[in-house]
Prior knowledge:
Chain A is mainly alpha-helical. Chain A is built from 16 helices and 2 strands. Chain B has 2 domains: 9-232, P-loop containing nucleotide triphosphate hydrolases (Rossmann fold); 251-367, CATH 2.40.50.140.
Amino acid sequence: MSAHSITEPSSRAKWVAGSLVILYALITMVPLAWIMMTGFKTPPDSISYPPKVIFEPSLEGYVNLFTTRTRVTPDALEALPPPATWYDEIVRERNMVIAGPSKFGERFLNSVIIGFGSTFLSVFLGTLAAYAFSRFKIPLADDLLFFILSTRMMPPIAVAIPIFLMYRNLGLSDTHLGMILLYTAVNISLAVWLLKGFIDEIPREYEEAALIDGYTRFQAFYKVVLPQAATGIASTAIFCLIFAWNEYAFSVLLTSATAQTAPPFIPTIIGVGGLDWPAVAAGATIFLLPVMIFTILLRKHLLRGITFGAVRK
Amino acid sequence: MATFCVWGNSSDMAEIVIKNVRKEFGDFVAVKESSFTIQDGEFFMLLGPSGCGKTTTLRMIAGLELPTSGEIYLDGEEISQRPPSQRDIAFVFQMFALYPHMNVRKNLSYPLVSQGMARADVKAKIDEVAQILGITDILNRPVGGLSGGDRQRVALGRAIVRDPKAFMMDEPLGALDAEFREHMAEELRALHDRMGATTVYVTHDQLEAMQMGDKIVVMNNAVVEQFGTPKQVYDTPATMFVANFIGSPAMNFLPFQQQLAPGATTARLGEMEATIPALRESGAGDLVFGVRPENITLSDTGTYRGEVLAAEYLGTTQIVTLNTPNGHVKARIPANQPVKTGEKVGLNFKPGTVTIFDKPSGRALRSELNEGVLAHG
């Protein structure tokens, strides 16, 4: 047996750990990969049995996602001028013509506005509140913090009916502002608690040094504390965005025509022209992208954020 | 501030007067009514055990805490309620508090940028300060990878770069290892001598205070116990706390009971009438005879006798612990004087060095020795 360091894992242990991680990643990736593949299948391929792993890729799902179509008779189809674009061609193969754009683009934009808007607002307010809780002597600070946390002690949907009535009276139903405020209200407790932990970790001396160096408290906060809290702000933003982005129930309940987000919209595709799984899968794939890109961009911060406090810098 | 002379701010008189300053945190009194004066150009030590209020006092001078009551004058102006940015005082933190997201140069320029100094002037100023501190070669490095000594120098640089009226230093050597501390203490003192700027320095290390300070304030339990030069504080402690806190080993305390009238020149310890500096006030009841270890000599003769319990060899001297009728006593004697554990020897106390304390209050009785010092303390 060769001698090895106690703190450094042996190469065999590393190999085993690595394999387990890869195996776990594969297991969790399979559904995701299946959705992405389905998005590029034709509707018959998507429901064929046994399921097709190798198939001829098609953009039919994406075309169906972004368009509404009407069925025409083969005679009428013959009478039409030749297809002008590649997507016209795909649609005509199914004896249909494009009637217009679908609502997906609009719904997706709503998701972006509401998701990022509420994330920004939660993190912005959360940072200010967390800084105040961390640095100032606030009467009943512990009770206030507990009160803030208590808003998460029941599922938000439990208050759906009161919120529905309230929003109707306030005219906030089916508005972007209403959804941003709602998601912010749900996320703010998480933001305050997470960020307070991060800001507590930043030694006060940095701000005091800035105060001594001739800056005001706000300048010290802005120029010294915020850069130090970047890790915490990034990971808090990711958690807030994931919640707001994926939220389904409130969106179903409170939005319909103008402010509906993508999650309640995607399932409605199913009803339009039979079970159009490729279109649903295409919608899910596109829907995943913003959070994935956002998370990848902030990945470095997120990893440090999850282990915050474990090792003193 | 367009002048570029780091050691030339002598035109600014930076006398700091602390007057009846008190600080409470809720129910906790961190500093009780304290008063002392820091003269222009002094290297001034705030010394005391942790929690005694010395750091709070320093932070009040800098403006990081506002006093509950009392006044602080800098250069004749009352500043106690002003924000730190309006006091023109620099602060060196124990953990240095260098901005971790900036490199050395940016750290140094930060206080200048806030004053709106022109870019070229900032650069010239930083280069000058870097030269003085010997950190020119690390100016573009991030502060994260610096050694303790270099961090210390950068922290000092950030303080001196703006020519403040006074420097506050909160245990600046506390984060360094022992070996480097000594070196840095010398460097710091040399820097001060060169710049001549008023410096207030907090430490719990009595050796550091004695070594570096022009004046020392000893604090304990939120109270100023004594204020004076290192020699005054060492030779003529105002209280038993000061006598015990300063000096290693500490001053010996021999409890005794006697009525002493003003003018008394002896105190009765066991069988011996020990000579003491003539008292200027009376003492009665429980008294304490205070004598420093180096002011005790051992001889075969002598009416006051003690048994040798142990001897610690320290090279040039040795510390002998003796059991006397008034308790254990430590004496510092030459290393070459032979002593044997268990033998009985006579103790002599160097006349003119003894301080008599009133035990219940811990206060030193005024005498020929200390009256000049304690009069204004």
